[in-house]
Design brief:
Elements lengths: L2 E10 L8 E5 L4 E5 L7 H16 L7 E6 L10 H9 L2 E7 L5 E2 L10 H13 L12 E4 L2 E4 L12 H4 L22 H12 L3 H7 L15 H17 L1 H15 L1
Parallel strand pairs: 1-4
Antiparallel strand pairs: 1-2, 2-3, 3-5, 4-5, 6-7, 7-8
Length: 259
């Protein structure tokens, strides 16, 4: 994962509850930035990186994710007090996603209609990472060049908000799948389970977790070291990956009740 430095704050994206923004970086690229100083905190950034990079490894379309450095000078002349405080609280590494110009939010009514394999892969991937936020109300999908791109994974990995209960949830079904915006088109969940397991076995989980900066981990009394903390993410997600066939059957049952 590349690291870039923010050079210009372009505009806020006020539809996001965490006040993300478009920022220009020293590689002349534009990025949608999720700030470490936002209300969701560092765990949302951890989820953004781990889930986003796992999605990429699974063959799904995700904008390039970078570590974006913000220094104290960036917000010095910002007239909006709320934005100025956010930038001040976000000095250091943040998450940037490559800005996709001309992309539009996926609309399940307007289309384009997703292919069953694509819909099934995305639904089951969200089951794997326990992504709570891919509903009709907020699809967190962009249509760009008539293909679906996955964004906004800060609500994934909800198990890391309660590590003391995480061991008992690794193989459990994902109740929120019934709200998934693509579930009506996900008619090939069993083959999707086989595809995702093939693509994500062999170290993909550990590599995704390894992209998280050390400074975003720690502070969890359950873990004595950063290595133990990282290993807990890997163990939970690999156990969930191993159970993906069973999780797919449950998702298929839920789909059959709804369509």
């Amino acid at each position: 994962m590349r690291t870039v430095r923010a050079t210009r704050y372009v505009t806020p994206l006020r539809e996001g509850g965490s006040l993300p923004a478009i920022v220009e970086a020293d590689d002349s690229g534009l990025y949608v930035v999720k700030f470490r100083g936002a209300g969701q905190g560092l765990k949302a950034l951890v989820a953004e990186i781990v889930a986003g990079e796992l999605a990429r490894a699974a063959g799904l379309l995700v904008p390039e994710i970078v570590r974006l450095e913000v220094d104290a000078a960036l917000g010095r002349n910002e007239p909006d007090g709320e934005i100025r405080e956010l930038l001040r609280a976000s000095v250091g590494q943040n998450v940037g996603l490559d800005y996709l110009p001309g992309s539009v939010t996926f609309d399940p009514v307007a289309g384009p209609r997703p292919e069953p394999d694509d819909a099934s892969d995305i639904v089951l991937f969200d089951v794997l990472v326990s992504n709570m936020d891919r509903s009709v109300r907020n699809s967190n999908l962009l249509t760009w060049h008539r293909r679906l791109w996955l964004i906004d994974h800060g609500a994934a990995l909800y198990f890391h908000h309660a590590w003391e209960r995480a061991d008992g949830t690794a193989e459990r079904p994902f109740p929120a799948v019934k709200e998934h915006v693509l579930l009506p088109w996900a008619t090939a969940l069993a083959p999707a389970a086989a595809r995702l397991r093939t693509r994500l076995e062999g170290g993909a989980v550990a590599r995704a977790v390894g992209e998280v900066p050390d400074a975003w981990l720690g502070g969890e009394p359950r873990f004595g070291t950063l290595a133990e903390h990282r290993a807990a993410y890997v163990d939970h997600l690999e156990r969930r990956l191993a159970a993906l066939g069973t999780l797919a059957k449950e998702a298929d049952r839920v789909r059959a009740e709804l369509v």
